[in-house]
Write a structure and sequence with these properties.
By secondary structure, the chain is α/β, with parallel strands linked by helices. Helix content is about 30%, strand content about 25%. The chain has a 5-stranded mixed barrel. It has a 4-stranded mixed sheet with strand order 10-12-14-15, with no helix packed on it. The protein has a two-stranded parallel ribbon with strand order 11-13.
Length: about 350
């Protein structure tokens, strides 16, 4: 029996990719980096490590139909539907319950659904090494990305003490997790050489993460135990009621920053979280003027722009550092330096409904 499982977290609204991303079809279900959606690419990578029947997708009810259309070879039981979004700690605990019910020896690989990882071989090597580390004992294993720029939008992992070496790959004890830094601190982290980006990827025994939640997040743990009982009796009303009362916390803040059994393995692959429209300029092929263009697009005297359209013709003249996106849901024109603020448009539209 293969005791390795993968939980893919497909929650979130993807507000920074408005107008392409909407509440009904958020970022994981978009073809932002190629001919397949981000979640389809994630599933493809994971299949090199975990059998298809051991891959679970956690998502909201309103995204279930689009997920089933895009991931047609997953069984219905592979989709874990959250009653509502409560951040990553409840999401992970909720996913651990059916996995533990199936397999008490389960190792959980927990991944976001919407990251850009073109090097599948390096990904498989890194995650497989992480599985070996998790099997060694009661460890919470995370993946660190070596910084390539002073990034203020990511959290960081400070890892220093070498823990073990196997298969030519390093493993470190985590000293602390660091919140998003200012520019000066981010520059210093690159120079110090023992700070890594926190990619939100985790590997652990399902029993280990539940023990950690019990110790450091007792309110969440007690709620999960109630849900476990309701799952066995298929009491959906109780599941929904309890889940909606769970504390809204990330696994980083609620568990990883407090635990003393955290290990980190450095990623042996290229990675980007593709968090904004301008992040496409980092990861995709550009024209000779530094533009990323998709769709029916004409650019004249245009530099360092993202110009993204579906069927509508988009033309630009004499501009630089802009994001121009046209879809059936709307048109976005944005200064490239303010791409993080696109989520404010999505929030305003949601409030106006």
């Amino acid at each position: 029996m293969d005791h390795t499982y993968c939980v893919i977290m497909a929650g979130g609204k993807g507000e920074r990719f408005w107008p392409l991303s909407t509440e009904r079809i958020p970022k994981p279900f978009l073809k932002l980096t190629g001919d397949k959606t981000l979640i389809q690419l994630t599933i493809e990578r994971v299949r090199n490590i975990v059998p298809t029947e051991n891959i679970f997708v956690v998502l909201g009810k309103r995204h279930l139909n689009v997920a089933k259309r895009q991931l047609g070879d997953l069984f219905d039981e592979n989709f874990i539907v959250e009653p509502e979004g409560r951040d990553t700690a409840p999401c992970i605990g909720f996913a651990a319950l059916p996995i533990l019910n199936r397999d008490s020896k389960a190792i959980m690989i927990t991944l976001p659904a919407d990251q850009y990882i073109p090097d599948v071989g390096g990904f498989v090597k890194t995650i497989s090494h992480g599985v070996k580390c998790a099997k060694m004992g009661d460890y919470l294993v995370t993946v660190g990305i070596k910084p390539t720029r002073p990034e203020t939008g990511y959290g960081y992992i400070h890892a220093h003490e070498k823990f073990n070496v196997s298969d030519g790959m390093m493993c470190y004890r985590v000293k602390k997790f660091v919140e998003k830094p200012d520019v000066e601190r981010a520059k210093a982290y690159i120079e110090e050489d023992n700070y890594f980006w926190n990619a939100g990827m985790f590997i652990w025994k399902a029993t280990t993460v539940m023990k950690g939640i019990e110790q450091h997040m007792p309110e969440l743990y007690n709620g999960l135990i109630k849900i476990k009982g309701a799952l066995s009796s298929h009491n959906r009303r109780t599941i929904d009621m309890v889940y909606k009362s769970l504390p809204r916390k990330s696994i980083d803040y609620g568990l990883m920053e407090k635990a003393d059994n955290v290990l980190m393995i450095p990623a042996d692959f290229r990675w980007d979280d593709v968090g904004t429209w301008t992040s496409l300029l980092r990861v995709l092929e550009l024209d000779k003027h530094g533009n990323y263009r998709k769709g029916n697009v004409i650019c004249v005297d245009t530099q360092d722009c993202v110009v993204y359209g579906d069927d509508m013709l988009i033309a630009t003249i004499g501009v630089s550092n802009l994001v121009v996106v046209a879809s059936k849901k709307g048109v976005l024109v944005c200064d490239g330096n303010r791409a993080q603020e696109v989520r404010e448009i999505a929030k305003r539209l949601s409030l106006e409904k």
